[in-house]
Amino acid sequence: MQPVAHPSAPTTASARAHNFSAGPGALPTAVLEAARAELPVFGDLGTSVLEISHRSPTYTEIAASARTHLRALLGLGDDWHILFLQGGASQQFYQVPLNFLRADASADYLDTGTWSAKAVKEALRCGGVNVVASSKDENYSYIPARDSWELDPEAAYFHITSNNTIFGTQLHDEPDVDMPLVCDASSDFLSRHLDLDKYGLIYAGAQKNIGPAGVTVVLVKDAFLQTRKDDVATMLDYGTHAAKLFHTPPVFAVYLVEKVLAWLQEQGGIDGIAEVNARKAAKLYGAIDATDFYRGTVHPDARSEMNVCFRLPSDDLEATFLADAATHGLVALKGHRSVGGIRASIYNAVEEASVDALVAFMREFEQTNG
């Protein structure tokens, strides 16, 4: 059985830009270089990881190692199932209610952005939806206050989107409710600790914080899993995947996720990366708030530590900002097409030095164009 290889320390690739992509996002340089070293031949297999069977001892060990890292990072007990699925978070918008929302029942949803609104739309295909609160009235620039929520005490679950990539808001406190939480954690997964006792299911597209596009991590508590419906199609039934490896998983994506999880542990785990993330966000928001030239787009108490959104005095200046930034090796800063502006996604793998470079550029750009 081939041991899983890990980088011991990051190395520098001088040609790499400062990547602020919202997703797929930046991956640790050390992980990319370790993967490159293992292509086209992995160990003594005579083939690459891209070419091995998903039922081979090698892949079995890679997947087991990834699960072990996840359990260690989050403190997951044996009552949690760890699934590596496909279809992204968008499939989970439907798969969750398909499994847990009966036609004669209802689930609570907090609407804080485009992705939560899409989740509501898919849930309505399966049963009733109670939108407990929404920030759509101010273009999703805030998180609705807890005392404004209209909860249904009989709800099957309460769905939240912990971080909103498009608008740059984040729930900084986990809801304290009587029903199980279901969370789309795609864009802040493993960036901070979770109170697992509150959750029934957590899902995250890997391509922002823990790996490449192509695999979705689903964590489901066994007690919650047992409440699912018994007539769900085989491939969409969480129980199918909790019981065994039923289909061909995205082998190479899981392989890279395993390496990112190992890298996270080398950074000091959740505590270590959360400290770095807080520093990065503080530096960038500090630069935005320093003058009136840059303007944050969300309420300060709802600001995301993952996706920092801001505007400049004019659309023309924003276009110039993006073009000049690219010449300084600062890429993927354009805001989502639905809202415009500037967006710097500073996920786990975005180095603090990249944020420092962006802040220095922002100050220089303001001096020249302010």
Describe, in plain words, how this protein is organized in 3D.
It is a single chain. By secondary structure, this protein is of the alpha/beta class. The protein is built from ten helices and 14 strands. It has helices at residues 29-37, 57-74, 88-100, 114-123, 222-225, 238-243, 251-266, 269-289, 315-327, 352-369; strands spanning 18-19, 80-85, 106-111, 128-134, 158-161, 163-164, 169-170, 181-184, 199-205, 216-221, 295-296, 307-311, 330-331, 342-345. The strands form four sheets. Strands 2-10-9-8-5-3-4 form a seven-stranded mixed beta sheet. α9 (315-327) packs across α10 (352-369). The longest helix is centred in the C-terminal third of the chain and has 21 residues, at 269-289. Residues 7-13 have low confidence and may be disordered.
Number of strands: 14
Specify the number of helices: 10
Mean pLDDT: 95
Regions with little confidence, pLDDT below 50 for 5+ residues: 7-13
- Into which percentage range does the β-strand content fall? 15-25%
Give the end-to-end Cα distance, rounded to a whole number of Å.
61 Å
Biggest pleated sheet: 7 strands, mixed
What is the C-alpha radius of gyration, as a whole number of Å?
A: 21 Å
Q: Structural class given helices, strands, pairing?
A: alpha/beta
* Shape by Cα distribution: globular
Strand order of the biggest β-sheet: 2-10-9-8-5-3-4
Order of helices and strands: EHHEHEHEEEEEEEHHHHEEHEEH
Helix content: 25-40%
